[in-house]
Write a structure and sequence with these properties.
40% of the residues lie in helices and 2% in strands. It is mainly α. Strands 1-2 form a two-stranded antiparallel ribbon. The N terminus is likely disordered. Keywords: Calcium, Disulfide bond, Glycoprotein, Heme, Hydrogen peroxide, Iron, Metal-binding, Oxidoreductase, Peroxidase, Secreted, Signal. One of its GO terms (cellular component) is extracellular region.
Length: 320
């Protein structure tokens, strides 16, 4: 899900974030803020109508938040004097739509002050961007997370890069108590994804001394991408959606991997490596299977590193 490039040796610096011991509950706000999920859903839906890229951005935001210090909304904190925050780290510079979370939080503070954490808002919003479509996976979001007070841009080196091979990806996910099936299922979130040219340009030009284009990439796709990402790279907004049905949450991403049409090297590697190929093939053939596994993996991801003693921020961009 990350859209940045990093030297592969940085994988050795990955930190371990254990699964949470905190007690989360899908009914956590039933008494204290029963309208919480409705407020978040309406905010997310309105923003998505205005900007079709919002769903992909919020889903990626959840992943990037949970993969650093756990699901504690540290990605939302602004940089302060003497500390550069996660959102300003290299892989997060392209994360957008923080305003959606801020809008939802402001409405929640009016409805039920000092009750709903920013971490829970991100988790619920990530579910909502998937479930807004007609055919989709769904799950009950476990709630009760607290917001962290630490956010460091330097920690973002721990996000998996689009250049990672499967061994590096497996290692990265294992540090978060996530298995191989979780890796493949959560990668399926790229069905809503968009990438700028900088994250895959190494695959379409000067790939190696023997190949100009990555030989694992479909040649027709490579030609399309070369036209979108012309040299010199003067348009920093240029890029491509990660599958051909980018506005629909489906299993097209996996079908494209079987045709060599993965945009990221880390995506296409899932179909090449024996550790993950059979799961990719299974998800490509059975959308319902993918939906079920994706929902289960999102619940597991949402439980990574949840803190028991934190705060409920009044504003998501700053600590209380």
């Amino acid at each position: 899900m990350a859209s940045y490039r990093v030297v592969c040796s940085l994988a050795l610096l990955l930190i371990t974030i254990p699964a949470s011991r905190a007690m989360l509950d899908s009914h956590y706000y039933d008494q204290t803020c029963p309208q919480a999920e409705a407020i978040i859903l309406q905010t997310v839906r309105n923003a998505s109508i205005y900007d079709p890229k919002v769903p992909a951005r919020l889903l990626r935001m959840f992943f990037h938040d949970c993969f650093i210090r756990g699901c504690d909304a540290s990605i939302l904190l602004d940089t302060t004097t003497g500390n550069q925050a996660e959102k300003d780290g290299p892989p997060n510079v392209s994360v957008r739509s923080f305003y959606v979370i801020d809008d939802a939080k402001a409405k929640l503070e009016m409805a039920c002050p000092q009750t709903v954490s920013c971490a829970d808002v991100i988790a619920i919003a990530a579910r909502d961007v998937v479930t807004m479509v007609i055919v989709r996976p769904s799950w009950d979001v476990l709630k009760g997370r607290k917001d962290g007070r630490v956010s460091k841009a330097s920690d973002t080196i721990n996000l998996p890069a689009p250049t990672f091979n499967v061994s590096q990806l497996i290692q990265s996910f294992a540090k978060r108590a996530l298995g191989v099936k979780d890796l493949v299922a959560l990668s399926g979130g790229h069905t809503l994804g968009f990438s700028h040219c900088s994250s895959f340009q190494n695959r379409i030009r000067n790939f190696s001394s023997m190949h100009d284009v990555d030989p694992n990439m479909n040649l027709q796709l490579a030609e399309v991408l070369r036209k979108k990402c012309r040299k010199p790279h003067t348009d920093r907004s240029a890029g491509t959606f990660l599958d051909s049905t980018s506005s629909i949450f489906d299993n097209e991403y996996f079908r494209q991997l079987t045709q060599g049409k993965g945009v990221f090297g880390s995506d296409q590697a899932l179909f090449i490596d024996d550790n993950t190929k059979s799961t990719v093939e299974a998800f490509a053939k059975d959308q319902s299977l993918f939906f079920g596994e994706f929902a289960a993996s999102m619940v597991k991801l949402g439980n990574v590193g949840v803190i028991e003693k934190g705060e409920v921020r009044l504003k998501c961009a700053s600590v209380n």
